[in-house]
Prior knowledge:
By secondary structure, this protein is an alpha+beta fold. It has one domain: Cytochrome-c3 Hydrogenase, chain B (Orthogonal Bundle), CATH 1.10.645.10. The chain has helices at residues 45-49, 58-61, 69-84, 90-118, 123-143, 165-188, 191-197, 205-210, 215-219, 227-230, 251-275, 326-338, 346-353, 357-360; strands at residues 4-9, 21-27, 30-37, 152-153, 156-157, 293-301, 304-312, 320-324. Helix 4 (90-118) runs antiparallel to helix 5, helix 4 (90-118) packs antiparallel against helix 11 (251-275) and helix 4 runs antiparallel to helix 13 (346-353). The longest helix has 29 residues, at 90-118. It is 47% helix and 13% strand. Strand 2 (21-27) and strand 3 (30-37) form a beta hairpin. The strands form 3 sheets. The protein has a 3-stranded antiparallel sheet. A 3-stranded antiparallel sheet has the order 6-7-8.
Amino acid sequence: MSEQMFIHMGPQHPVNHGLWTLKVRTEGEKVIDCEILIGYIFRMIEKIAESRPFNTFQPLADRLCYVSALSWEASYILALEKLMGIEVSKRVQYLRVILLEFQRIASHLTWLSAFTVDVGMITMQVITFREREYILDLLEHVMGSRMMYNYFRVGGLKHDIPFGFEEDALALTYHLDKRFEEYTDMCDKSRIFRLRSKGVGILNKEDALNLGATGPVLRASGIQADIRKIEPYLVYDELDFDIPVKTDGDCYSRYRVRMEEMHQSNRIIRQALEKLPEEGEINQKAPRKLPKGEIYFRTSDPRGEGGFYIIGNDDKIPYRVKIKSPAYSHLALTSHLLRGVKVADIAPIVASIDLCMGEIDR
């Protein structure tokens, strides 16, 4: 007769990559059921957004996820601009794309570091941060900060790019492409990595759609969906890039999708640098009040579909702000992936989803 055991993983557990609790019911080495508990770092950030002028909230949008701060900042600013009917110059749009794609790469590199550690490749933990530091150096040169940027503005940017940025950015993309090949080679040739990722945590196409997966998690299950292609914003419709898709839906597929996405981000950056207009208004004057109306604007966050729903009421303070987090949906589907797996597979499965509790406990 077998005995069942209840294991509480969290709220402070290295597998969780954040403050949340995973209550697992096991029978031997098999996971029978699990329950997810969140709310340990709840900050009421949506209510904060509804209690202050719209232009004073953007520094807090950075803090939704420190790994992809610029992405959340952009989502908020683009939603406000759509509500106000503001169209920024082409130069601003191209610069935003360049910076957002560098942010995407930096986010994926942070994920790769955490994921490889959880599958037993300790060497990769430090190596991936080497290239991430180069990206943060470049972003710091532009925005003056390495993580919480507060650089985008309603109507443009805080200021123009510094001298030499275009040359440094272009050189960095070619350097990164070489390093990505090195990372892929190290992972694919590792027997441990393959054993602990291939065929583990399978999410089929039907479940991915029904459970609300977006971004790399959805694309790893065979769905070619990306907001940059479906509903292009900024100048993504003027740039040529591919959407990486895999069909196995396992941890290895999610890894491969993100690795290929970083190559595509470099491809986007190089095109944007080539097409970047030399002239264009950097920061146009924006209205001081939000007009009456409502808007939902979604963008392609490194983790999937991120968006802001905002209601304006002819006031400088928004009537309602609701944030859509891709990590929130992915955390919910994690319990589906964990049922029936081995206890040892919990770590790579959770890591492959790429969670950020800052944007989940909002």
